[in-house]
TrEMBL record:
GO terms for biological process: cobalamin transport; cobalt ion transport. One of its GO terms (molecular function) is cobalamin binding. It comes from the Eukaryota. Cyanocob(III)alamin binds at N8, Q53, L181. Belongs to the eukaryotic cobalamin transport proteins family. Pfam families: Cobalamin_bind. PANTHER family: COBALAMIN BINDING INTRINSIC FACTOR, TRANSCOBALAMIN-1/GASTRIC INTRINSIC FACTOR. Transmembrane segments: none annotated. Keywords: Cobalt, Cobalt transport, Ion transport, Secreted, Signal, Transport. GO terms for cellular component: extracellular space. This is IF factor. It comes from Ciconia maguari. It is found in: Secreted.
Amino acid sequence: KNDGMIGNIYSMGLALQALEATAKFYAPQKWDCAQAFSVVYRHDYRQPMAIAQVLPALVGRSYLAAASLDCTTSASVSPGPQQSPSPKLDAPKVDRALITVHYAIVNKLQGKHFSYAISVRVPDGSTLLKVLQVAEQEKPNVFSFRTEYTSWGPMVVSIHGLAANPDDRTYWQFLSGSDALQEG
């Protein structure tokens, strides 16, 4: 995309690794590495799998280069006096302002069609999962949902009793306006 995004935020790490590892094959064409990395730098990665895929690109290596890594020559790193101590884990929690999120669920594909909307208040910076949880607390008969844990974190597999179905290739898509969310 013109903003540096390659696929979505989940595919960025592997895409950056692939482009770095195969750069000599794309000599006549240039890709804007700095623009792609700026997308990565702006994103707050929280899922372990996404971090594991983007980290090699950030340190200038790829999974393909791992086979040639010589670990016997690595120097161990010990903290020196010039390094600052780690941040305290018991730092005071900062209250964040509440924001209003307008959340709607729409099914026009299968079974009994439905469309419901609700406005919920959540702390600024909340995850989509938090929005779903608050909506479910306020109207459990309408905004119920179910998740399954994956290596990418929890994945929504059912909303309002309608489950995703790999055989039918159906799933729940999350949008902000008409744009698909890069990360749930």
